[in-house]
Amino acid sequence: MKLTTKGRYAVMAMADLARFSTGRPVALAEIAERQEISLSYLEQLFAKLRRGDLVKSVRGPGGGYLLSRQADNIRISDVILAVDEPIKATRCELGSPRGCLTTSGRCITHDLWEELSHQIHIFLSSVSLGDVVNGRVITSGNAGANGARGGLQVAGEQGQQAVSANAAD
């Protein structure tokens, strides 16, 4: 499964905003330059993020955007869903009783991909914007002694919880 640029760019921009706002509004042009994202594309994304109540805009000189709440209280899944990025690995339409086959049935692997979508959502819901900005997301490349090939660990609220998932080759 692969996220489109819409979801990835929204998370990148929100992480940039969380890191650089320090209580002052951040102009989209600054985010666009640092993250190498088109300004007009960011404007579209931030309109959706504002409607999703994840950011608030400040007009006038020195204006820009602020997070609507603390970074530790914004989940990555919230950001992705706010920009209308579905978290799914099936070909079927979300919520539709129809399957992905021309006969309207479900393919033989439907339940597998549906569960993968569910696990991805659980993972993205367990990671906050604060976790990303403060380096509390640990990938298998730097996880240390766990030695799980393809493993992934995420330290949650103040490192008290860890979510682990091992991916098969």
- Strand line-up across the major sheet: 3-4-5
CATH class of the domain at 5-110, named: Mainly Alpha
What is the N-to-C order of secondary-structure elements (H for helix, E for strand)?
Answer: HHHEEHHHEEE
Shape: elongated
Explained architecture:
The protein is built from six helices and five strands, in the order αααββαααβββ. By secondary structure, the chain is of the alpha+beta class. α1 crosses α2, α1 crosses α3 and α1 packs across α4.
Compile the SSE list and pairings:
Blueprint: H1 5-20, H2 28-35, H3 39-51, E1 55-58, E2 64-67, H4 76-82, H5 110-126, H6 129-133, E3 137-139, E4 151-155, E5 162-166
Helix pairs in contact: 1-2, 1-3, 1-4
Describe the structure using short key phrases.
5 strands, three-stranded antiparallel β-sheet, elongated, 6 helices, Arc Repressor Mutant, subunit A, two-stranded antiparallel sheet, disordered C terminus, alpha+beta, 169 residues
